[in-house]
Amino acid sequence: MKLLTGNHLISGLVIWWTGEGWSLHVEQAADVGDKGEQIAQVETAACRVNGAYIVEAEPGPAGPVPNHIKERIRAIGPTVRPDLALKPADASAGSYVI
Amino acid sequence: MYRYDTYDQAIVDTRVAEFRDQVARRIAGEMTDDQFKPLRLKNGLYLQLHAYMLRVAIPYGTINARQLRVLAHIARKYDRGYGHFTTRQNIQFNWIRLEDAPDILAELAKVEMHAIQTSGESIRNISADQYAGAAADEVCDPRPWAELIRQYTTFHPEFSYLPRKFKIGLTASDTDRAAIKLHDVGLQIVHGADGETGFRVFVGGGMGRTPFVAHLIRDFLPAGAICSYLEAILRVWNRHGRRDNIHKQRIKILVHDLGAQEFARQVEEEWQAIQPLGDDMPLAEYTRIAAYFTAPPFEEGLCDALDLSDARFAAWVQQNVHAHKQPGYAIATVSLKPIGGIPGDVSADQIDLIADLAEKYSFDDLRPTHAQNVVLPHVRKADLYAIWQALDAAGLATANLDLISDIIACPGLDYCSLANTRSIPLAQKLADRFADPARQLDIGELKLKISGCINACGHHHAGHIGVLGVDRKGTENFQLLFGGSGAEDASLGKIIGPGFTEDGVVDAIERAVEKYRDLRDPGERFLDTYRRVGSDPFKEAVYG
Amino acid sequence: MVEVAIPLSLRFRDDEPADEPAVTLDAFLDQPNALSVRIEGGDDVRRLGPALDRLRLVEIDFPRFRDGRGYSSARILREMGYKGELKAVGDVLVDQLLFMRRCGFDSFGPDQAIDLAVARRALTEYDFVYQQAADGRVPVWKLRHG
Fold this sequence. Notes:
The complex is a heterotrimer. Chain B is of the alpha+beta class. Chain B is built from 17 helices and 19 strands. Chain B has four domains: 6-110, Sulfite Reductase Hemoprotein, domain 2, CATH 3.90.480; 142-290, Sulfite Reductase Hemoprotein, domain 1; 311-393, Alpha-Beta Plaits (2-Layer Sandwich); 408-543, 2-Layer Sandwich (Sulfite Reductase Hemoprotein, domain 1). In chain B, the strands form four sheets. In chain B, strands 1-2-4-3-12 form a five-stranded antiparallel sheet. A five-stranded mixed sheet of chain B has the order 5-6-7-8-9. A five-stranded mixed sheet of chain B has the order 15-16-17-18-19, with helices on one face. In chain B, helix 13 packs across helix 15 (502-519). Chain C is α/β, with parallel strands linked by helices. Chain C has helices at 25-30, 69-79, 97-102, 116-124, 140-145; strands spanning 10-11, 23-24, 36-39, 57-62, 85-90, 107-110. In chain C, strands 1-6-5-4-3-2 form a six-stranded mixed sheet. Classes of the chains: A alpha+beta, B alpha+beta, C alpha/beta. Chains in contact: A-B, B-C. The A-B interface holds A 7, 9-14, 44-47, 50-51, 67-70, 73-74, 77-81, 84 and B 26-29, 33, 47-52, 80, 95-99, 342, 413-415, 417, 419, 422, 424-425, 428, 474-476.
């Protein structure tokens, strides 16, 4: 599957396209198929995302898992500072969308 | 240290206002990222793996307590409670929001700090010997010249859109603690035959994809001509450096392509045209700046003896404390490489502690080094024990300066979007493997440097042992290099063979270290033995 | 974003603009009657030395704003004593205007429109400069020491 990721323009935080908007949580990332470039252009022009790019991923039990370690680190946080990791979204709390 | 006058302050304050406006225009969509990127890079703001990263300049590696406390405050207020000292004597913060950047720069400006030209295709922070003003072997303190050059290269209108970044390093002694031969321009301050001050000028060093040791292009340049001469160097490169392939645009490529002799000739020719135009600063300006760098009010007649009955204190003195030119004083290195820690990282609390120590014990003077440690340059020997106790309580007293666990590591894939591999976990594993202090002392000086990608921010080419992270079909892989040095005997490390997994390279390094111990002559460091016997015995030890 | 309708030209000279089209450096040197020349990034402006007297307009092209060769070309021309119009054309953005003026450019023909209010601010924002350049501004070291 293909995910669209980038950094939130104002905060710089890593974000993932959910199909409707942007989330901090990779579990909510949607398969953008071949629409990734198009979405990236619109979102970049609207100043919601910076440095957007497409990422290969496999579906996992708790959401998509990016194929490359770089994107997995982007999704979670620095491996050497687990105290700074992004906590997974609580499914019962609903979407966490910027 | 240098203090801003109203002109310096006005320039930095204007820069903050200018950047604030540029950020606002970016957020409002009046600029694309392509247009904004060089502007934010000129203010040290990278877009990194997890957030924006801000690299704050610490000019020629000199900072005082008041400034350090503001860095601690920035870490707490705008970041996640810590900062990272870099291999160019700067500090960087990893979790910055774009909208906060102007406020951060404003707070920095209040204590005469900035992030100007710390990234992008600019003339970057000028690095200098961390023992400046304290070491006995220097001709003079290099920092007044570094400050003069800093001003000259700040917002230089002709050189703000260079082919690539440009790094200048300064030293004033034959022992090169600033790795000047691995800079785009390296300057060694010397005295000429008449006692006149001048520079030996080296050009074209650098690491990265195509590493080179710099060439000496001028044996003696009268010091007063440094600005016009730098202008000639920069102009030759700005005009003729490649612009077609980002990996071929550093000045080292031009020097290599032309040959050092032809490059030097072009510089001299350009300099003949420039020098009469009067761009050089007068001696009075040097003298004005130098007045800020006179020796601190050392006490005379202090005792040189030390009570070394505390074995752990003695080990720290033995390894981390260097002789000072003033009797009764010493130069103390604070290790930011605790075993299992993150090389170069400091918490806000640790920054505050270091600030207190610098203020109380070192004439309010602290020096970050390119090896990612910090130095208290002027401490009384009588105060060393109290300093050590305070550092020890804060985890900052590891007695490992220049030993194998004093590892230089770039942030790597944990933080950096350019990286192929992580480097910090490898540094931690290596430090753990060699944690035993007695073993480290037995191994002796061994400079181990890790880069997570070919950009070489970990200076792996200059490591006695260097490690380069590569992407091998989507997995992390590590290449091993031996024989590099950033000192006056500069040399570039050579890859010894196929790469390893993370655990594999730890084992490989251990085998190489054991082979060194087998083969070494008395007094030889790893580097010396390697240079004497060559790579074959080590290849055999590593690969079997 | 404020839409400001301005002509795609910004000029800081009182004289009449040269009205003949700028030719290439080689062509200019070949044509003794030519008055205007267009300099590309790789051209050596020092070749214009013997022709400075008849030269009325030098256009220096910036193919990409990050390509900074034009700054050196401009400054060299002014150092050689060129007093005619020096125009930056191509990918010229408002945030480069100050450096360009300092290097001796006195007119601009950017590919994209420039917001005049932003331009005015960019050009007047800095009260002090650290270096001597082609614009005659007194550098800080001279203010300090007279």
